[in-house]
Amino acid sequence: MDKINLRKLEELNNQHVIKVVEEAIQLCKPAKVVVITDSKEDIAYVRELALINGEEAKLKMEGHTIHFDGYYDQGRDKANTKYLLSKDVDWGIKVNSIEKEKGLKEICSFLDGSMAGKEMLVRFFSLGPTNSIFSLKALQITDSAYVAHSEDILYRPAYEEFKKLNGSPDFFFFLHSAGRLKNGVSVDIDKRRIYIDLEENRVYSVNNQYAGNSLGLKKLAFRLAINKAQREGWLAEHMFIMGVHGPNSRVTYFTGAYPSACGKTSTAMIPGQTVVGDDIAYLRKIDGVIRAVNMESGIFGIIHSVNSENDPVIYQALTTSGEVIFSNVLINNGIPYWEGMKKDIPDTGINFSGEWFKGKKDCEGEEIPCSHKNARYTLKLNELKNIDSKADDPGGVPVQAIFYGGRDSDTTIPVVESLTWAHGVFLGATVESETTAATLGAQGVRKYNPMANLDFISVPLGTYIENHLNFTKDLKVIPKIYATNYFLKDESGNYLNSKLDKKVWLLWAEGRVYGEYKTIETPVGLIPKYEDLKTLFIRELDKDYTKAEYIQQFSLRVVKYLEKMERMRKIFENIQMPAAFTEELKAQTERLKYVRTKFGEEAISPFQFLDI
């Protein structure tokens, strides 16, 4: 490290920072070390370096670049993502782990000399708005300018914020190396490792380039944040944050958690609403109110099927000038193309497999699509026309409602309000999602996914749920909680709702926050009255909503719900869960059994509950 870069480090006045940087240099042995501050010149240096290194290439539109990961490095590597644990723990859920000393020895052997002949970048970021009680500080060291450039888009710069630590070690540390390269991509993917040290708040990642494995600040930092939040009495959640715009210019802030392919982004981007964040939220109790911030300032989104019809705001941002990184899509004549964009796609070009032509097959004889199903775009939130005015507010936004949703073809009502906060936590903790044949193999296999967070929970599940149950203590305003389901089908396999209908469920829930709509009480929660939905469908979608549709969608499929309760009982019977959760499971089961006996039907019309 030269004197200029050493001085940048020393100006932070933090020996803990200097120590981890020194250790990284000694281990990875880079040819050059550059410390990047918050200055425009330093950040521009990183963007230019990504081009010089060939990690990105310019596209025809100003500000757009393309990055390709290796053919076998196109998604999160769950098998080789492990916690470094110094002792055995029982989290009640299956987690990948390795004994800490053994894991450190292994990954350090892979990192040893991994940056030889390459440039090490030392980066400082804020997870959340700067100068905010919510935000966490993160130190990223990487030899990938693509990784560093992506994080410039996704997170706030925080070199100056690190000065405010006053020598404290209270920051997350991430060390990444793409490892040995050939034709610009990682070669030793058999040695791809992503190891998470919860005790030291560190993550080590090597021999990979796909952002979900290499960007420490994404879902890897999320695991550290969940663990830290559980210790400190706040929540780190896999949630969007959005402003829902009701009557008379009223804005009500919702958060929402959905597993992949269950409507999370499409809910956050409903026309007429504003977005604060699409992926990860930090929630704290401040002056008796739950407030939330988006820990990111950008989007790392799946581009498959993004088009002008279904995602007009995102599509516009992707097809106009501005800073965007495309990854693993097709490039023809400097223009990006991807599956599902509803536009004619060229028969040739360059994609994640190299030179591509329609009908090209891989080594296994499988046809290679023009873009990978997990192809991505990276852009700043402020590139979107629907960004909320409080997106960067260091004080966060007040949370007045929470959505939980999964993909469920035959059980869950389209929208239901919880009976109480504890019942709402129960609804979130029992989220299930069905796999789809197109992407995950067998169709209709139900995957249990509490709070849509199963992959990232880094504490015992019982502790995680108990902290949610206790989160209303000392609150002046308790948010309402809703379970949603956009994927209910009839007996012929046809969806009972259009993609646009979720706007009605959202605005009904927004009105409920202010007590504007009466409800019907069922064993699984409070559901809308037909007359209110009919009015909303006409007002918002100019659509006639029939009583027959209402009965079909909001009838209580009591047998299916009881089957789900039995699945939940079996899941939780061997997990140490809070008594309040167990009571909710028992109570909902008993309510369902009562109406099953009372009405003697497999599906009970919502109108029948009016007489109870």
What would your notes on this structure say?
By secondary structure, this protein is an alpha+beta fold. It has three domains: 3-56 and 71-232, Phosphoenolpyruvate Carboxykinase, domain 1 (3-Layer(aba) Sandwich), CATH 3.40.449.10; 237-297 and 391-611, Phosphoenolpyruvate Carboxykinase, domain 3 (Alpha-Beta Complex), CATH 3.90.228; 300-383, Beta Complex (Phosphoenolpyruvate Carboxykinase, domain 2), CATH 2.170.8. The protein is built from 18 helices and 35 strands. Strands 1, 4, 5, 6, 7, 8, 9, 12 and 13 form a nine-stranded mixed beta sheet that branches. Strands 14, 15, 16, 17, 18, 19, 27, 28 and 31 form a nine-stranded mixed beta sheet that branches. Strand 2 and strand 3 form a beta hairpin. The longest helix is centred in the last third of the chain and has 21 residues, at 579-599.
Jot down its keywords.
612 residues, Phosphoenolpyruvate Carboxykinase, domain 1, Phosphoenolpyruvate Carboxykinase, domain 3, Phosphoenolpyruvate Carboxykinase, domain 2, 3 domains, 9-stranded mixed β-sheet, 18 helices, 35 strands
